[in-house]
Amino acid sequence: AQTVTQSQPEMSVQEAETVTLSCTYDTSESDYYLFWYKQPPSRQMILVIRQEAYKQQNATENRFSVNFQKAAKSFSLKISDSQLGDAAMYFCAYRSRQGGSEKLVFGKGTKLTVNP
Amino acid sequence: GAVVSQHPSRVICKSGTSVKIECRSLDFQATTMFWYRQFPKQSLMLMATSNEGSKATYEQGVEKDKFLINHASLTLSTLTVTSAHPEDSSFYICSATTKKGQKVSTDTQYFGPGTRLTVL
User: Fold this and answer.
1) Would you call the peptide bond into B8 cis, given omega within 30 degrees of 0 as the criterion?
2) Distance of CA B90 to the CA centre of its chain
3) Taking CA atoms, what residue in A is nearest to B112?
4) Do A59 and A49 meet the contact criterion of CB atoms below 8 Å apart?
5) pLDDT tens digits along A39-94
6) How far is Cα of residue B81 from the mean position of the Cα atoms in its chain?
């Protein structure tokens, strides 16, 4: 079974600075998706970024980018120019592309605090 | 695009009563919907997966008779908590995916805003 590990329960960053959240995963599959979701205090889960494992190029979405290291099974999220609105829980998630399963396997989350 | 709504956002009920939570995809057809439960300061726990027109698949340890899931159309799934007890109090979240290649990405789960259930 696949597992997702987020080793940083909490992180903090100064406004306008850059922060990197770590995520590692374990799988024997070669084809899969990886996601970062954000859950602010409202508790609405918001998709931040998505990466297909077959793509070598790292996904980017404005100030958010990932460092996808397939061999190392690492999928870190970099937030540049941090804003107060980035404060939230961040969940890393894995989804298989094999066997028809659409389930997400979530990590335990990292709570990000942004200091003014 | 990719808006998922849930209703109600909060509900308080007495022990022994049943509560229904609705999950709707507003701008796409949801071929699969998921129901999660989230305890404070924890990650999401998948309860069940439902496909339109078929029975839900429940995760191990989730009581099928207590948590009834119906996915009657491509835009609506409901979760009914039957004979609710205080231990059922939690935050319930639904999500939806589509395989119909519309304006939203296929194979990505889009989440509703959640429902806070309190059982007295």
Assistant:
1) yes
2) 12
3) A44
4) yes
5) 999 999 999 999 999 998 999 999 999 999 999 999 999 999 999 999 999 999 99
6) 11
CA B40 remoteness from chain centre: 17
The pLDDT value given to residue B90: 96
What 3-state DSSP class applies to B9?
Answer: coil
Cβ-based burial of B112 (10 A; exposed 0-12, middle 13-18, buried ≥19): buried
Chain B nearest C-alpha distance from A89 (Å): 9
- Is A84 touching B (CB cutoff 8 A)? no
Question: What distance, in Å, lies between the first and last C-alpha atoms of chain B?
Answer: 37
Query: Nearest C-alpha of chain A: how many angstroms from B43?
Result: 5
For residue A111, give the chain B residue with the closest CA: B41
Nearest alpha carbon to residue B11 among B69, B110, B91: B91
Could you give phi then psi for residue A115, rounded to 5 degrees? -95, 135
Does any CB of chain B come closer than 8 Å to the CB of residue A35?
Answer: yes
- B23 inside 8 A of chain A by CB: no
Q: Nearest to residue A111, comparing CAs of A6, A17, A18?
A: A6
Is B1 in CB contact (< 8 Å) with chain A? no
- What token pair was written down for B84? 């609710």
> Does the pLDDT value for residue B41 go beyond 80?
yes
* Between A100 and B75, the higher pLDDT residue: B75
Residue A40 preceded by cis peptide, ω within 30 = no
Mean pLDDT for chain B overall: 92
**Residue A41 Rama label (left phi>0; alpha psi -120 to 50; beta):** alpha
